[in-house]
Write a structure and sequence with these properties.
With 341 residues, the protein is of the alpha/beta class. The chain contains 11 helices and 14 strands. An 8-stranded mixed sheet has the order 8-9-10-7-11-12-13-14, covered by helices on one side. Strands 3-2-1-4-5-6 form a 6-stranded parallel sheet, sandwiched between helices.
C-alpha cells in the first residue's frame, strides 16, 4: 500500500481526496498547506497529520507519493524537491508555469526514473473520459479514413470574484497565464493528443472582459498545424474565452474522410453513410464543478499502478509540455517581451 500526501488543500484537492479514498493500492497519510486554517480543516476531515510545508513532510518521512494541488508557479519547484528525495509526484496541470521550468523538470524526472524508478505524472484526466478514449480508438483504427481537420471551443464564465478568491490566478507570476493555463489547457491537450502533435500557425490572446481586473488573458484563438499518425498535415482551429455568459459545454470536433466525430460531453459519430453512433460518459459530475469531468479517479488509479512497474507513467513532464509550449507560443505572438512569463 502506497502512502500519499495531498499538498495544497484548495478546490481541486477534493478530487484527489476522493480518489485516494476509493482506489486500491494507495491511502492518504498526510496533508500539507501553509494556511493554518485550511490545513487544520483537512487534517481533521481526513484524520491524518498536517504539515505547513513539503519540506516538513519530506523530513518527517513515511510517504511514497505527493499530489500537488498548489498554485501553478509552485508545481515545478515542489516536484523537483520531492523527486530529488525519491518521492513520486502527481501534479495538477500545468506541469510548470514557464516553459524553462517544465523543461528542467522533465530532465529531473528522467534522471529520477532512471536512477530510482521514481515517477512524475501530470493530471490531464480528460484523456480518461470514456467518450474521449472511444474517439482516440476510432481514429487509431483507421476505419474512418484520413483526418481532414478539427476544431474546439471552451466558452466559460469567470467573474472578478473568482480571481479575488485566489489572487495568483490572475497574475503572470502566479499562474503563468490566464484562460489558456487555467481552463482551456485541458481541451488544447486533447486536441493535440487526438489529432497529432501541433505547432502554432497563428494565434492571439488578450484581456477583453476583465481588463483592469487581471494581468492575464481571458480570451484566445489559435490556428494549429498537426502531424497526423499517417504522416500527413492538417489544421485545427481553437477558440476559448472566460467572457461567455455561462459555462457552456466544451466542444471538440474531428472530421475524417468517413465521419464527423463530435465531443459534447458524449461522443457522437456521424458516418458518411448516415449512421449515427453515440458513446456516453459513464460517470459525470453534477453541479458547479461538472466541467472538471469525472476521470480523476481513473488517472490516479493508473498512476499508482505504474509505480514499480518499470514503465514511466504515460502523461509525464515531456508529454505535458506539448500543450504548454503551444500556449507560450501564443503569448510570444501576443505580448511584448517582458509582459509575460
Amino acid at each position: 500500500m502506497r502512502r500519499a500526501a495531498v499538498v495544497g488543500c484548495g478546490d481541486i484537492s477534493a478530487q484527489h481526496f476522493a480518489a485516494l479514498g476509493a482506489i486500491d493500492g494507495a491511502q492518504l497519510a498526510a496533508v500539507v498547506d501553509p494556511d493554518a486554517d485550511r490545513r487544520a480543516a483537512a487534517s481533521a476531515a481526513h484524520g491524518v497529520p498536517g504539515y505547513a510545508s513539503l519540506g516538513e513532510l519530506l523530513d518527517a518521512g513515511g510517504v511514497d507519493a505527493v499530489h500537488l494541488c498548489t498554485p501553478h508557479n509552485s508545481h515545478a519547484p515542489l516536484a523537483q524537491q520531492a523527486l530529488e528525495r525519491g518521492v513520486n509526484v502527481l501534479t495538477e496541470k500545468p506541469v510548470a508555469h514557464t516553459l524553462a521550468d517544465a523543461e528542467a523538470l522533465a530532465l529531473t524526472a528522467r534522471t529520477a526514473f532512471a536512477e530510482r524508478g521514481t515517477q512524475l505524472g501530470v493530471c490531464f484526466q480528460n484523456r480518461y473520459n470514456e467518450p474521449v478514449r472511444a474517439l482516440r480508438e476510432l481514429l487509431d483504427s483507421g476505419k474512418l479514413g484520413r483526418i481532414l481537420g478539427a476544431n474546439a471551443t471552451v466558452m466559460w464564465h469567470r467573474t472578478p470574484e473568482y480571481y479575488a478568491a485566489r489572487p495568483w490566478r490572475g497574475t503572470w507570476a502566479g499562474s503563468g497565464g490566464g484562460l489558456l493555463m487555467n481552463q482551456a489547457i485541458h481541451t488544447l491537450d486533447l486536441l493535440q493528443w487526438l489529432v497529432g502533435p501541433a505547432v502554432l500557425v497563428g494565434g492571439a490572446a488578450s484581456t477583453r472582459a476583465l481588463a483592469g481586473v487581471i494581468e492575464v488573458e481571458d480570451t484566445a484563438d489559435l490556428l494549429l498545424e498537426h502531424t497526423t499518425p499517417d504522416g500527413g498535415n492538417v489544421r485545427s482551429v481553437f477558440y476559448a474565452t472566460n467572457a461567455n455568459g455561462v459555462n457552456a459545454p466544451v466542444t471538440l470536433d474531428v472530421v475524417t474522410e468517413g465521419a464527423t466525430l463530435s465531443l459534447r460531453g458524449e461522443l457522437t459519430v456521424r458516418h458518411a453513410d448516415g449512421r449515427v453512433d453515440v458513446v456516453e460518459e459513464a460517470g459525470v459530475l453534477a453541479g458547479e464543478r461538472s466541467y472538471w469531468g469525472a476521470s480523476h479517479r481513473l488517472l490516479i488509479e493508473d498512476f499508482y499502478a505504474s509505480l514499480g512497474s518499470g514503465r514511466p507513467f504515460w502523461i509525464g513532464a515531456e508529454e505535458a509540455t506539448a500543450s504548454l509550449r503551444l500556449i507560450k507560443d501564443v503569448y510570444a505572438s501576443s505580448y511584448a517581451p517582458g509582459e509575460w512569463v
